[in-house]
Amino acid sequence: MPKIDPYAALRFREFNIFLLVRFAMVFAWSMQFIVIEWQVYSMTKDPLSLGIIGLMEVIPAVSTALFAGHIVDQKEKRNLLVKCIFGFSVISFGLFILSLPSIVSEWQTQKILYGIYFLVFLGGIVRAFIGPTIFSLIALIVPKKIYPNAATWSSTTWQMAAVLGPALAGFSISLIGVHWSMCVIFGFSVFALISLSQIAKKPILNPKIGEPVLESLKEGLKFVFGTKAILGALTLDMIAVLFGGAVALLPIFAQEVLHVGAEGFGILRAAPAVGAALMMFGSTRFPLHKNAGKKLLFAVFGFGICIIVFGLSTSFWLSVAALFISGGVDGISMIIRQTILQLKTPDHMRGRVASVNSMFVGSSNELGAFESGVTAKLMGTVTAVVFGGTMTLITVGLTAFVSPSFRNLDLQKEVEDHEADELPKQ
C-alpha cells in the first residue's frame, strides 16, 4: 500500500488559494451569525428570537436549494462563486449600516429586528448557491485520487475558521462593539473576493447543458435517494444536528446559566470548532476510510452524549469540555460524510448532490436552531438541550438497527481504486 501523503492536496497552488477563500468566507459568515445572535438576544431577551434567526435563513436555503444545484451544474464554477461572495458582501454591509449607533438609537427595536431578519433571509438564498459551488469547485482543482485528502483539508479549514470566527466575535463585541464587528466581517468578505480572482475559470463538465430544470432536479434526487451510502450519511447527520442544535442556545447559557458574558460566550461557541479542527488535522495522517459506517455511527453517538452533558452542566469548564469533545466527534462525522459525497458523486451531478446535502445537513443547523428555540420556550433551556441529545442517541440506534449495509460501509477499496486509476497519468 502506498505511503500516505497528508499534504497531497496542498501541493496544488489553486487549492491553497481556494482554502484561503474558504477560510475568509467561513470566518466572516460564522462571526456574522454570532454577532447577530448576540445583538438580537440583547435587544429582545427572548430565546424564540434566536430560533427565528435560523428560520429566516433556512426557509430560502431549503426552498431554493434544488434549483441552485441545477444552476451550479450548468454554470462555470469560479464566476458563480464570485457572484455568491459579492452577494454576501452586500448583506454584511447592510448589517453594518443597521448597527450604526445613530440608527440603533433612533429606530424602533422592532424595525431594526425586521431589517436583520430580512438580510438573514437574503443570506439564506446566497448560501443555497455557495455550498454546491464550493463542493463542485474542489473537484475541478485537484485530481480524483486525492479527493479524500482535499475534503479533509477543506473541512479542516472550515473548522479553523469556525474556531476563530466565533471566538473573535465574542471578544470583538466586548472590545469594539457590534457595529465595528460588522465592519470586520465586511472586510473579510472583500478579501475573499480579491483572493478568488487568482483562481482560473474552470470547464463545465455537465454533458446536458440546457437540460430542463425539472428533468435535472429529478435526476439529482433519484441519484441521492438511490445511493444508500449518501442517503444514510445525510439522514443521520441531519437528524443529529436537528435535535442536537444546542449551540443556538449558547447566548442563554452564557448569560443566564453560566454567567460568563461575551468573552465566555466566545469561548463556548469556539470550543466545538477547536475540537473538530484538531480531530481533522489528525485525520490527515490517520484517514477514516476503513469501517467508515461504524465510525460515523460512533461519532454521532458521542455527539449526543456530549450534548446531554453540556445541557446538565452548571460548570463553565465542564461545559467547554463537553462542547470541545462534541466538536471532535462531529469533525469525524463531517470528514466521513464529505469523503462519501466526493467519492460517490459523478462530476456532472456535484451541484445537485451538494444542494441536497445542504438541505439535509446545512439547513438542519438552522432548523435545529429553530427547534431549540421553540423547545426552550416550551420546556425550558436545559430540558430542551437534554431532549435534543437524547433524540440524537435514539437516531443512531435506529440507523444501526435498520441499515446493516450502512453500518458495514467501508471506503478503503474505493479510495485505492481511485489511486490506481490515476497512477498511469503520473
Automatic annotation (TrEMBL):
<keyword id="KW-0813">Transport</keyword>
<keyword id="KW-0812">Transmembrane</keyword>
<keyword id="KW-0472">Membrane</keyword>
<feature type="transmembrane region" description="Helical">
    <location>
        <begin position="15"/>
        <end position="36"/>
    </location>
</feature>
<dbReference type="GO" id="GO:0005886">
    <property type="term" value="C:plasma membrane"/>
</dbReference>
<dbReference type="Pfam" id="PF05977">
    <property type="entry name" value="MFS_3"/>
</dbReference>
<protein>
    <recommendedName>
        <fullName>Major facilitator superfamily (MFS) profile domain-containing protein</fullName>
    </recommendedName>
</protein>
<keyword id="KW-1003">Cell membrane</keyword>
<feature type="transmembrane region" description="Helical">
    <location>
        <begin position="80"/>
        <end position="104"/>
    </location>
</feature>
<feature type="transmembrane region" description="Helical">
    <location>
        <begin position="229"/>
        <end position="254"/>
    </location>
</feature>
<dbReference type="InterPro" id="IPR010290">
    <property type="entry name" value="TM_effector"/>
</dbReference>
<feature type="transmembrane region" description="Helical">
    <location>
        <begin position="116"/>
        <end position="141"/>
    </location>
</feature>
<feature type="transmembrane region" description="Helical">
    <location>
        <begin position="296"/>
        <end position="325"/>
    </location>
</feature>
<feature type="transmembrane region" description="Helical">
    <location>
        <begin position="266"/>
        <end position="284"/>
    </location>
</feature>
<keyword id="KW-1133">Transmembrane helix</keyword>
<dbReference type="InterPro" id="IPR036259">
    <property type="entry name" value="MFS_trans_sf"/>
</dbReference>
<feature type="transmembrane region" description="Helical">
    <location>
        <begin position="179"/>
        <end position="200"/>
    </location>
</feature>
<feature type="transmembrane region" description="Helical">
    <location>
        <begin position="153"/>
        <end position="173"/>
    </location>
</feature>
<feature type="transmembrane region" description="Helical">
    <location>
        <begin position="378"/>
        <end position="402"/>
    </location>
</feature>
<feature type="transmembrane region" description="Helical">
    <location>
        <begin position="48"/>
        <end position="68"/>
    </location>
</feature>
